[in-house]
Structures are given as C-alpha cells and as structure tokens.
Design goal:
Layout: E1 3-6, H1 10-23, E2 29-32, E3 46-50, H2 55-68, E4 73-77, H3 83-92, E5 96-98, H4 104-115, E6 120-121, H5 123-139, H6 143-153, H7 158-165, H8 169-183, H9 188-198
Parallel strand pairs: 1-2, 1-3, 3-4, 4-5, 5-6
Helix pairs in contact: 2-3, 6-8, 6-9, 7-8
Keywords: DNA-binding, Phosphoprotein
GO biological process, one term: phosphorelay signal transduction system
Organism: Romboutsia maritimum
Length: 202
C-alpha cells in the first residue's frame, strides 16, 4: 500500500513515518508538508492529512481527491476539535477523523481499522454533531435564516449580508431578530460563535 503523510510539523511527519514503516511494516511511505494539488496523490492508496494550518485549502483538496478517487482512504488530523470542519469532512466522505494522537497503540488500531475498509471518527465530535442536529430540528431555522446566520458568522454586517443575498437591510435585521429568538442568543458575538461551530462550511 502506498501511503502519504501530509503535515507541516516535522515532529508529526517523522513520528508517523516511523509508525507506518516500523509498526505497520509499510516501506512505501512518503511525507510532504502540504497538499498543493491532486496530482500529488495519483499513485497513493492511503492519505493522512494534518489540517491544523490552512484548513480551508487542505479540506478543498481532500474534497477534490474524494470526488475523483473515492477509493482512496483518508484520515484527517484536526488538533483543534472544530465541529464545522468535522461535519465538512464527514460530508466529503473521509474514512477517519482524529482529534489528537495520545496513544500509539490506539492510533495503530485506528489506521488498521480504516485500512480494512471501516471508518473511525472521534466520539465526542459525533455526539456534538448529533446534539446540534437535534437542536436544529427543535429551533427549525428557515433556509434564509441559515444563510444569514452563516454570513454573520463570517463577520459580514447587515448591509453586506443584504447585498450578498439580494434582500434589504431591514429584512436582514428581521432574520437576525428571529435567529436571536429561536437560538436563545443575546448579541452579535453569540451569533458569530454559534455560526462558526455549527454552520460555516456546512
């Protein structure tokens, strides 16, 4: 099996290369700092991607890989435990999602599990996602309110949101007011925090 390890951290690159070559007895292991294009994985079967930096670009490339080569197995490492990134990765179809590597044996177990065709995700993130989905059903935001919430989370003001959605600033204010009420939020800062975790890059 041809394996690619992607991480800007030389510590992670060196440690994982040693694990794959020694513990998993796989000599066909290549390490790089960052994914730049899909051509880098043409002859690769298994990809381990550390996305702690340049998250948006790395996730986009992973998504492109999965669209054209769904048979390639991918494990994502996200040390910051970002719910929005996790949901995006699940939607893309990655086989594994690891928040941190604390135990060598546990990591080897996860890798072998994914290599065998199964999936492995962080339990806490799955629980958070399920809890959010349950809350979302309860609050029942409209599609337009979701769009406004997402843009607000990205830092756009009411006027900018209105221009992007082709609605008046007054209408945006009405949607913001509904979002406050439905999600029990108090101010704009709460909206930004909520949106960043639950909606951005959904």
């Amino acid at each position: 099996m041809n394996i690619l390890i992607v991480s800007e951290s030389f510590i992670i690159r060196d440690a994982l290369e040693e694990i794959f070559k020694v513990q998993l007895e796989n000599e066909n292991t290549k390490v790089i700092k960052m994914l730049h294009s899909q051509s880098e994985v043409d002859n690769i079967d298994f990809i381990f991607v550390d996305i702690r930096n340049d998250v948006v670009n790395q996730i986009k490339i992973v998504e492109s890989i999965k669209k054209t080569s769904p048979e390639k197995k991918i494990i994502v490492l996200d040390s910051r435990k970002r719910g929005s990134v996790f949901k995006k990765a699940i939607k893309i179809g990655v086989e594994g999602y690891v928040v941190d590597i604390l135990d060598r044996d546990e990591f080897i177990y996860i890798v072998k599990k994914v290599m065998s065709g199964k999936k492995s995700y962080e339990f806490d993130l799955i629980q958070d996602m399920l809890n959010h989905e349950e809350k979302h059903k309860k609050y029942d935001l409209t599609r337009r309110e979701e769009e406004v919430l997402n843009l607000a989370g990205e830092g756009f003001n009411n006027r900018e949101i209105g221009k992007k959605l082709y609605i008046t600033e007054c209408t945006v204010k009405k949607h913001i007011s509904n979002i406050f009420m439905k999600l029990n939020l108090k101010n704009r800062k709460d909206i930004i925090s909520y949106a960043k975790y639950n909606y951005i890059n959904k």
